[in-house]
Amino acid sequence: MQNAITVPADLLHRQLTTVFTAWGMAEEHADTAATIMVETDLSGVDSHGIGMLPHYQKLLREGRLDPRATPIILRDNGVAVLVDGQKAIGHVPAHFATELAIEKAREHGIGVAAVTNSNHYGAAGWYARMAAEEGMICISLTNSSHLLVPVNGTEPALGTNPIAFSAPTRDPERPVLLDMATTTVAYGKVSIARRAGKPLPPGWAINEEGGPELDSARASDARRLAPLGGTREQGAHKGYGLALMVEILCATLTGAGSGQLRTGHFFLVLNPAAFRDREGFQADLEDLLARLRGNAPADPASPVIIPGDPEHDTTVERQRDGIPMVQTLVEEVRAVCEESGAAFILRS
Amino acid sequence: MQNAITVPADLLHRQLTTVFTAWGMAEEHADTAATIMVETDLSGVDSHGIGMLPHYQKLLREGRLDPRATPIILRDNGVAVLVDGQKAIGHVPAHFATELAIEKAREHGIGVAAVTNSNHYGAAGWYARMAAEEGMICISLTNSSHLLVPVNGTEPALGTNPIAFSAPTRDPERPVLLDMATTTVAYGKVSIARRAGKPLPPGWAINEEGGPELDSARASDARRLAPLGGTREQGAHKGYGLALMVEILCATLTGAGSGQLRTGHFFLVLNPAAFRDREGFQADLEDLLARLRGNAPADPASPVIIPGDPEHDTTVERQRDGIPMVQTLVEEVRAVCEESGAAFILRS
């Protein structure tokens, strides 16, 4: 690993709000985005926390991100709502929309909030977790920049279009929490292989002829990822189909559009109590999870886990020890601060 | 291919209703189930049409399927509804629930219908297509008998738990229609490899140590399938996570339960017109699909397709030429007729 420092969560939060308010974001919005990013870093999803800050700065510089924007409700049918993100940083409209969907689910049993005209919203799973903390089941989706090459094709045509799903367990700190790209791997894993000078397994990236790209340097430059499944024989048409589903719900249904840097989100929130008594739901869910954890493991040192377990463990660890940041990232944050006229406070 | 006959769709429909009414099913229910099964066979999903009849007969014999049952509404919150399938053949409560969800989506923009106490409902995609024909977007899910081995585990603990998704295009005959197991392959593909005496690729089945099972005969007996992705490196934790999502929505949220032959379903229906003007939605969807179809293909003879294309093409072909049935299946249907006291009319 590169030379790294560890940063306490509250310091990282302060650094982020310092930058965001320097950009002109309202304090409340700065706090929302910073909280989401820091909690994402705490959970170990390093690719979607402060690591995205240089990208957001670039969007700001190019006029694609409006720091002063406040999301508005475009349509509200009682249960379904469409939010216009007004080109804010995606976290702000996504947080607003998830709150609305939770409210609606509390009242009607379900709520759907779709968001148009937004930007990158960080980790899809954060919003699902937010709903789970309120006792709700949630699906959180976003489209994203084109990296996925459809089966039979050669050109990136869809994003890594993640699917996040949460369900509340009796422990509010520990929901079932799936957060997955619909590509075999997120782009970050290709970069990691490149830095390590390692080849890629087949099924991760696609070469210009549509076959497997095993050279991590070439794959990293070309930015062509395989859908989950990797190859047709291994079910890549399923990953492609799931990515298309996410695109239709986030880009087409919302009107956000399907081009590069056109971003929409989709949140479905379900109140289990609308379907059955909550106690029965919780008991059955605990039984299901216990049965899965009890599955005889191939290797006793690696038991069957539940989606969300690794992120929960990392959160506990990083709340105690701080968030590791490689030196390169620290310098990138310093550069963002300089460009923004914000104080750099991560280290003196 | 085995000795096969081709059967016109209407003859197959009559054969099925003859059996179902002999079982004691109401005419309307017999017609619903037969229609769904025949249309599934027409679309080429042979594993989920009349091929399931011997299994349904077995459920009937064991008292797990009540042919006289009529599904009832257990809870109705206006937008979310819970249906009790009363142990009917799954098609009947699933069709009833999808109709309810479509009605609710027409009124409120969205509708969710969950079903408990049901049975195998055939192809998940059929219900999604039904909603698409009404201009709706739909997600159709069901849990199913345990075949999927969770990552790190050795024992089947979840079903192949399919995810179907549909979106209506301008051509009502041709919705976007994804219908996928959350395992790398459905069990039928393992059986086909066994009959052909071929080994399996890694990533399809799991051996008793939790590693890849390449012997198709052993895999077919052991009934341990790998989650979509196949191996951890190729993203099998994602297929496992998706299967768990389906299990929670179909088995836990509904109260159907998660054991063998405990079956529930989940249908989400969205009216695009609740989010934006329908014309804008349709135009953007056509653009997206055209862009995907226009992706430069690796092999010009195999262009990029849209989920649902192969099923659409097969339907056109089989509506014209009839539905192929291998001799073994014809004999199985004959045996079902004998056991049920129903006339066998497929061939004299």
From TrEMBL, chains A, B:
It comes from the Bacteria. Belongs to the LDH2/MDH2 oxidoreductase family. Keywords: Oxidoreductase. Coiled coil: none annotated. The keyword Oxidoreductase applies. GO terms for molecular function: oxidoreductase activity. The keyword Flavoprotein does not apply. Gene3D superfamilies: 1.10.1530.10, Hypothetical oxidoreductase yiak, domain 2 (3.30.1370.60). InterPro entries: Mal/L-sulf/L-lact_DH-like_ah, Mal/L-sulf/L-lact_DH-like_NADP, Mal/L-sulfo/L-lacto_DH-like_sf, Malate/L-lactate_DH-like. This is LDH2 family malate/lactate/ureidoglycolate dehydrogenase. The lineage of its organism: Bacteria, Pseudomonadati, Pseudomonadota, Alphaproteobacteria, Acetobacterales. It comes from Muricoccus pecuniae.
